[in-house]
Structure formats: C-alpha cells, structure tokens
Automatic annotation (TrEMBL):
Similarity field: Belongs to the anaerobic coproporphyrinogen-III oxidase family. HemW subfamily.
UniProt source species: Halomonas tibetensis
InterPro entries listed in its UniProt record: Coproporphyrinogen-III_oxidase, Elp3/MiaA/NifB-like_rSAM, HemN_C, HemW-like, rSAM, rSAM_sf
General function of this protein: Probably acts as a heme chaperone, transferring heme to an unknown acceptor. Binds one molecule of heme per monomer, possibly covalently. Binds 1 [4Fe-4S] cluster. The cluster is coordinated with 3 cysteines and an exchangeable S-adenosyl-L-methionine.
Gene: hemW
PANTHER family: COPROPORPHYRINIGEN III OXIDASE, RADICAL S-ADENOSYL METHIONINE DOMAIN-CONTAINING PROTEIN 1, MITOCHONDRIAL
The protein's name in its UniProt record: Heme chaperone HemW
C-alpha cells in the first residue's frame, strides 16, 4: 500500500467589493456596503467539509489557505468560528500554517488583530502595485499608502509571516517603474513575495478590451532586473513567481507543486485527492464545488450536496499533470519520485529529456528533472517536450 501524500485545506470566499478587470477567479463584486451572509456561509462551509471528511482518510492538515474573492470582507468572528469548526472535524499539525488573503482596501482598523486572535498566522496582501495610477488601471480599490498602512497594522497585530502579491508587466510599465514597486515592497520587509506577470486571461474584461502592455523586450528586462534585485535582498526564488526568506516558503503552495492532496470547500473551490491504487500507483481525482454563491448556499438543503464535478486523472495524463506542478519549483523533482508518482519508466522519458537539455530547458543532472532558468521562462515548451501522451 502506497503512503498517502500530505493533506491541506483550501477555503474559498467568493465575494469582493469590485471585480478587477484582470481577474479570472470565482469572485463576485458586491459593492462596499453589502451585507454578506456570514452565518449561512459558515454553516454551508462546515456542511461541505462534513461531506468531504472521508477523503481525508485519517490525515492531519499540514496547512490551511483561505482565498477568494476577498476573504478580508468577512469578520474576525466568522474566522474564529470557522477555524474552531474545522479543528473539531480534522486534526491539525501542531505547527500548521493558516493563511488568509486580504485586500488593503477592505480593512477596518483593528480587524487584523481579530484575525490573529482567531488563529490565522500568515497574511497574504494583494498589493499588486504601490503606484496609484497603476492601481486605478487595475481596478483596485486601495492606494499605495493603504497597502503600507495595512502592513504596519498587520505587524502591530503580531503577524510575523507576511506575503505581498506584486504584479509586473502592467500597462505602460517601464523597468524603472517595476523596480520602484519592488523597492517599496522590500522596504516593508515581507517574509514572502509573489511577483508575477500580468496576463490577459479569457473571460476577463482585460481579455475583451486589452490594455496596452509593455513590449516583449521591456518584459524581459523587467524580469531580469527584478529577479536579481529580489535575490540580492535575500528573497530566494523557489517557484516561478514566488520568493521567500529562509524557512518562509508557503507551505500551501509547496503542497500544490509537490502534488500533495488538498480538500476544497466553498463556492467554486477545487480539490485534489488520492484514492485507491492503480497500476501507476495512487489514483488521483480532481473535484470542484458549485460555483455561484447563491446556488452553493442552497445546496445545504439539497441531497446532491456541494459537489459540481469530478475528474479521475487517467494514467495517460498523470506524467504531464505531475510535471506541470513539479517543474514550477526551482528545485524540480528527483527522477525516482517522478517514476513512482507517474508509473512511467525513466527509459521512456530519456529521449525527451535529451532534447530538452539540448534546448537549454533542463539542468544537466542525471538524477533530477529540474527546469533551467530558461526552462522556467518557457515552461510550456518544456512540458510539450516531456508530455508522455
């Protein structure tokens, strides 16, 4: 019997003040003064978790991530009850990492202290930029000074594990402006920084009405200069767009990329779970919940429960699925782990690896599957070369 991977929990809060034009997440704008159905949603989340408990198979939670939407629209009392309800249903690791995403534009003074008291020990602030003109173009509802004030309040509330989300490749952005954003972020001494390029995703306002983005040469310059500056500042890159100080890598993100399991509760939440064994090892299923918040709340009284769909990953898909995750990590994955997870022989992979190495997309290491810096930039090209279907 193969051992099961670690287990995490993702909780989705689908509401935000205003839908940003670049956002393709399951988020629903409600305006600034909306009254959210906290009590009903709390009840629904715990009922959703009750339905998923058999999938935990006795494992403890190693991390918990609350994302959105804008989770900081919900009160501290909501999270105190939610975390108590989760702890009553599932064991938690003694050092569990519990992350809450927060928007600097939705914070009432003192709310961070309540979140910390509720048991949340890591914050992820959606800053995106410190320049007010860029924030307005991105549809954000906060200013650069709001972001700096939010960090100060988080520190005052006792948070010593803080991530800042910062975008680059913004409309009209120059390398100098991108570096200015990074300098203002670094001045706040975050333990973790997610620095990622703006992309125009389908089904977003930006996709249907695209803004003028920087030319490709400018984007390369921004990436090169930014990577160098973050490393110089002591934030080591460990994933395509993630940088951290020693011991502060995001456990939840690492669990994703290392192909761990995670339950997903909340409107539109996704999960990935290992089940029985097949010829390639553990059988893996992806599951997702009802997407629309109102429909999700109604499912409490529906015998169908909260599940909207499921997909069993076929053995022919497994090599690509696993590689898509593992190769996002700078450290990559050992070939022995690749073989035991995918059920494919290294001999079948070797010809493809040789081609990828000749193109400079892989590190020269006979024992690891590890993208080179060039491979991280052109990950889709690398994955196409090692796709085993």
């Amino acid at each position: 019997m193969m051992s099961l991977p670690p287990l995490a929990l993702y909780v989705h809060v689908p509401w935000c003040v205003r839908k940003c034009p670049y956002c393709d997440f399951n988020s629903h704008g409600v305006g600034r003064n909306a009254s959210l159905p906290e009590a009903d949603y709390l009840q629904a989340l715990l009922a959703d978790l009750d339905g998923d408990l058999p999938l935990a198979q006795g494992r403890e939670l190693v991390c918990l991530f609350i994302g959105g939407g804008t989770p900081s629209l919900m009160s501290a009392g909501f999270y105190k009850e939610l975390l108590a309800g989760i702890a009553a249903r599932l064991p938690m690791a003694n050092d569990i990492e519990i992350t809450l995403e927060a928007n600097p534009g939705t914070l009432e003074r003192g709310r961070f202290a309540g979140y910390r008291e509720a048991g949340i020990n890591r914050l992820s602030l959606g800053v995106q930029s410190f320049q007010d003109a860029q924030l307005e173009a991105l549809g954000r509802i906060h200013s650069g000074s709001d972001a700096e004030a939010a960090v100060a309040e988080a520190r005052g509330a006792g948070f010593d594990n803080l991530n800042l989300d910062v975008m680059h490749g913004l409309p009209g952005q120059t390398p100098a402006l991108a570096l200015e954003d990074l300098e203002r972020a670094l001045a706040l001494s975050p333990e973790h920084l997610s620095w990622y390029q703006l992309t125009l995703e389908p089904n977003t306002e930006f996709h249907s009405r695209p803004p003028q983005l920087p030319e490709e040469e400018v984007l390369w310059d921004i990436q090169d200069l930014g990577h160098a500056r973050l490393e110089e500042a002591g934030l080591a890159r460990y994933e395509i767009s993630a940088y951290a100080r020693s011991g502060r890598r995001s456990r939840h993100n690492l669990n994703y990329w290392r192909f761990g399991d995670y339950l997903g509760i909340g409107a539109g939440a996704h999960g990935k779970l290992s089940a029985g064994e097949g010829s390639a090892g553990l059988m893996i299923e992806r599951r997702w919940k009802v997407r629309q918040p109102e429909a999700y709340l109604r499912r409490q009284r529906d015998p169908r429960g909260f599940l909207a769909g499921r997909h069993r990953i076929e053995e022919s898909e497994l090599a690509l699925e696993f590689s898509m995750n593992a190769l996002r990590l700078v450290e990559g994955v050992s070939l022995s782990r690749w073989r035991t997870t995918t059920g494919r022989s290294i001999a079948m992979l070797e010809a493809r690896l040789s081609s990828a190495r000749k193109k400079g997309l892989l590190v020269e290491d006979a024992n690891r599957l590890q993208a080179s810096p060039q491979g991280l930039l052109f990950l889709n090209d690398l994955l196409a070369l090692i796709d085993m279907e």
